Amino acid sequence: MRFVISIPQFLSDGEFDPARFRAYMARAEALGFENAWTLKQTLGTSRS
């Protein structure tokens, strides 16, 4: 069985932290997730 994980897209403070993102993905890989997915919003309003 293969598992995937969702890549977080909303940040509470609005700032992207590359080190935190790398740590999140490294942990997901260590737990056995084979892929990471993200969603694209095509309808509705976007966050600014």
The tally of domains stands at 1
Structural class call reads alpha+beta
Question: Strand order of the main beta sheet, please?
Answer: 1-2
Low-confidence stretches: none
Strand content: 5-15%
| Portion in helices | 25-40%
Instruction: Assign an overall shape.
Output: flat
Q: Radius of gyration, Cα only, in angstroms?
A: 13 Å
Q: Tally of extended strands?
A: 2
N- to C-terminal distance: 38 Å
What is the arithmetic mean of pLDDT?
81
Number of helices: 1
Which sequence of SSEs, written as H and E, runs from N to C? EHE
The description of the largest β-sheet is: 2 strands, parallel
Describe the structure.
The chain has 48 residues and is of the alpha+beta class. It has one domain (4-37). Helix content is 27%, strand content 12%. The chain is built from 1 helix and 2 strands. It has one helix at 18-30; strands at 4-6, 35-37. Strands 1-2 form a two-stranded parallel ribbon. 0% of the residues are buried. The mean pLDDT is 81.
Give me the secondary-structure topology:
Blueprint: E1 4-6, H1 18-30, E2 35-37
Parallel strand pairs: 1-2
List keywords for this structure.
48 residues, alpha+beta, 1 helix
In short:
It contains one helix and two strands, in the order βαβ.
